[in-house]
Design a protein that fits this description.
Elements lengths: L5 E6 L6 H12 L4 E4 L2 H12 L2 H4 L4 H14 L3 H7 L6 E4 L5 H11 L3 E7 L2 H6 L12 H4 L9 E4 L4 H16 L3
Parallel strand pairs: 1-3, 1-4, 2-3, 4-5
Length: 181
């Protein structure tokens, strides 16, 4: 695994468009330069070993999966972070689902100054148009609220469906990244 020149830790509420923003960044930088990493990927893979097929059970067992993941993180805060970066070779890493202060701290401890935090925000109205509905035990859990406080974000990207405004924000972020490449 090569050391990254830039690590973007994206966070935001469900249906704020974190994955969309991550894919936009990868598309603009190109797959040879940028990879999208998901901390939830290793969580779901490990959890799926208990259920055989995580995708079929994702919604039904989401709360239990969150609880199980929290237990793993309590024992080893870097467990899912290490698994997510394994094999990443591109110089820019976009972590599309940073959810906890322990995730931010792990990346900062391991990769230092190349880490930047990016908060993706969307209004509740926009999120509802994207089929978001508040779920007790999910939307009020640390997995959704862990970064609502305690992090001074390097970037805040508003993703309310205005493609021009989003493009302008991403362009500013990309121009800043170019200095690292």
């Amino acid at each position: 695994m090569a050391a990254p020149r830039a690590v973007l830790l994206l966070s935001g509420k469900r249906k704020s468009g974190k994955d969309f923003v991550a894919e936009e960044l990868r598309s603009r930088l190109g797959p040879d330069v940028c990879t999208v990493l998901r901390l939830s990927g290793p969580l779901k893979e490990q959890y799926a070993k208990r259920l055989l097929d995580a995708s079929a059970y994702k919604e039904t067992f989401r709360q239990d999966m969150i609880r199980w993941g929290e237990e793993k993180r309590h024992t080893d805060p870097g467990f899912f972070c290490r698994a997510a970066v394994e094999g990443a070779l591109q110089p820019v890493w976009v972590v599309s689902d940073t959810r906890r202060l322990s995730d931010v701290e792990w990346f900062r401890d391991v990769y230092g100054d190349v880490v930047q935090t990016v908060r993706v925000v969307a209004t509740e109205e926009t999120r509802k148009r994207r089929n978001w509905v508040f779920v007790t035990g999910v939307d009020d859990a640390e997995s959704e609220c862990g970064l609502d406080q305690g992090v001074a974000f390097d970037w805040v990207i508003t993703n309310d469906g205005d493609k021009v405004a989003l493009g302008e924000q991403l362009e500013m972020l990309l121009q800043s990244l170019q200095r690292s490449l």
